[in-house]
Structures are given as C-alpha cells and as structure tokens.
Design brief:
Ribosomal Protein S8, Chain: A, domain 1, 2 helices, 4 strands
C-alpha cells in the first residue's frame, strides 16, 4: 500500500496537468512549478485544468494574476479549448 506522505517526482517540461493533484494543492503547486520552469528557462507553460464548471480554471487564473513573474495568460485555443491555460513568464535572462 503506498504511503500517502510519499512524494513523487513530477516532470518540469512546461506542461502542468492538474488532474493528478488535489485542488487544495494548487496554491503552492503553481508558484513552485513556475519557479522550476524559470530555473530551466521555460517561459511558456501550459496548465491543464479541465473544463468542468470552471472553478479550477478560475482558481488557476487568480493564482497567475497574483504572480509577478507572469506576463500574461490566456485560454488555450487549440483542441483543449478552455480546458487549459497558457501562461507567459518573465524570462530570467
């Protein structure tokens, strides 16, 4: 049986799928993910939050709005439609 306190390595590749996380984790998860992306010179990230009722999407947008490292963000206008958000980050270089 897996230990519920066990941590797992999550790839830092510019795509963050929130489906594998609990909603109460995103307030710290997204800023930490932004930090790790910037450490790797990734300045465009995709956050997959799903469509649903839009609650998680609004939470993601509120977190991005408060983060001074985020230049802008928008709904992904591709096959995911409004199930994902693209955020553009300030380059550290």
């Amino acid at each position: 049986m897996p230990n519920k306190d066990e941590t797992h390595e999550y790839p830092i590749d510019g795509i963050l799928d929130l489906h594998v996380f609990k909603p109460n984790e995103i307030n710290t998860l997204i800023p930490e993910y932004i930090t790790e992306c910037l450490n790797r010179n990734i300045v465009e990230i995709r956050i997959i939050h799903g469509k649903g009722k839009g609650i998680l999407r609004r939470s993601v947008h509120a977190i991005l709005e408060r983060d001074s490292r985020v230049i802008s963000y928008k709904a992904a206008y591709d096959r995911s439609s409004w199930g994902a958000t693209i955020a553009y980050l300030i380059s550290s270089q």
